[in-house]
Amino acid sequence: MKSANPMRCILGLGVCMAILVGCSANPSQGKIPPANMDKDTLSLFVEDNTLYLSGVLTSQLPSQLKSVLTEHPNVTDVVLVDVPGSTDQLAVMEAARMLRYLEMKTHIAQTGYVLSGGVDLFLGGVERTIGAGAGVGVHSWRDTQDWGDEVNLNDPVHASYLNFYLEMGVPERFYWFTLDAAPAERVYFLSPEEIYDYQLVTD
After folding, report:
1. pLDDT tens digits for 68-122?
2. Greatest CA span in the chain, whole angstroms?
3. Would you give the end-to-end CA distance of the chain in angstroms?
């Protein structure tokens, strides 16, 4: 039986953002070991009222965020600098919902980038902005049995994503777009027009 919560991971990173992205297994089956990924690279740094986040998002993300935000209750803004993806989609959704509950603003740093699960974390912001030259990359998910773009449209596996995007105020058509935009081993970078069309930014 398919999991309704496929997880994402990076299979490879190239220079100039020539990035190959894949996905890990569902929670009940464990994770597919990603190549060229240091799971301990997530960096959280607070300056004034801003939390800067960079690195791969893992299952520890919700507890890491909670710890930092508890220690720095003055934080109102989360800036995503370079986020190449995630290894646990459930954790990313939980963290995004946490940001939304705390009414945090999210911003992608100038010339920075967010990919795959990083995009979902960005969507947690009540206000979302993107710096000049920043990249927003999406692709289809994959678990150990299925590729997201090959699963029947009526399959309940899609429900967790659709519900999440609707919660974040993003049209459900964005989810279907990510499945078609690029296969799991590649990344599609959205144009400014697409970013606005899919309501990824709030102004």
Report:
1. 999 999 999 999 999 999 888 899 999 999 999 999 999 999 999 999 999 999 9
2. 47
3. 41
pLDDT at 12 over 70: no
User: Cα–Cα distance between 58 and 64 in angstroms, integer?
Assistant: 10
DSSP state of 147: B
The strand pairing partners of 83, in sequence order, are 114
Tokens of 54: 């960079």
Sequence letter at residue 137: G
Kindly state the tokens that stand for 78: 């989360």
Q: Is 58 helix (H, G, I), strand (E, B) or coil?
A: coil
Other CB atoms within 10 A of residue 167 CB: 14
pTM higher than 0.90: no
Give me the residue label for tokens 């929670």: 27
